[in-house]
Amino acid sequence: xxxxxxxxxxxxxxxxxxxxxxxxxxxxxxxxxxxxxxxxxxxxxxxxxxxxxxxxxxxxxxxxxxxxxxxxxxxxxxxxxxxxxxxxxxxxxxxxxxxxxxxxxxxxxxxxxxxxxxxxxxxxxxxxxxxxxxxxxxxxxxxxxxxxxxxxxxxxxxxxxxxxxxxxxxxxxxxxxxxxxxxxxxxxxxxxxxxxxxxxxxxxxxxxxxxxxxxxxxxxxxxxxxxxxxxxxxxxxxxxxxxxxxxxx
Length: 249
Ligand SMILES: NC(=O)c1ccc[n+]([C@@H]2O[C@H](COP(=O)([O-])OP(=O)(O)OC[C@H]3O[C@@H](n4cnc5c(N)ncnc54)[C@H](OP(=O)(O)O)[C@@H]3O)[C@@H](O)[C@H]2O)c1
Hints:
globular; binds NADP nicotinamide-adenine-dinucleotide phosphate; 249 residues; seven-stranded parallel beta sheet; alpha/beta
């Protein structure tokens, strides 16, 4: 997938979809920055697995909701690995699952703020370099819940819809500078974030998909790699659901 000599930053790569993405990018030849917030030892294990397999990686701590930390992270990554070619904005911003009437504004706003701050700060930090070099690929990890809502998920759906709109607008703006911006939207994926869901519910959702199962993190990573690579060089502003066909647009 032509990832040799590429430098990628994957946010929230200590676990789940980010971890699978970092490992796949590295296996395809990219030098990868593994961002984490709290799981330092897990992030170090990801880096160790990559380097033991002959790849290049570094771990870098930053809360993606904090502008100064994001700027420091990008500066450290570019100093260590070189100019960034790819940003995968993946870090999972937590949210409450409950009926709308039970939400306070502060709870709702925390999710909107977190989701939008993370993409805003990460893009502001990487874009000056990408536009100057005339190339770059940004992939934002949204959710099929941004297009197909589910009871209780109003904060998540609203925040991810904002993320989708942000990506479309940014793709318009930075396309003329050679930078592509796309959304990969996973359906239900087996990670720590979904471990709380009852097994019967996961099985039921899997059964509704034409491909008859829910996703593994590696399924999402494969789609992210495909969109990041030059094979997708004429794709920008797109929303790609990765849900085994459960969400078709
Ligand atoms: N799993 C699903 O079914 C599903 C479906 C649709 C969309 N998604 C999206 O896919 C993405 C990844 O989700 P996941 O299921 O892989 O989550 P996960 O397994 O719970 O992992 C979350 C990752 O995000 C990191 N993180 C959380 N807050 C952070 C912050 N403020 N700054 C930096 N890193 C932070 C965590 O780092 P530490 O552990 O180091 O703190 C961890 O590496 C998210 O954007 C999520 O909304 C997931």
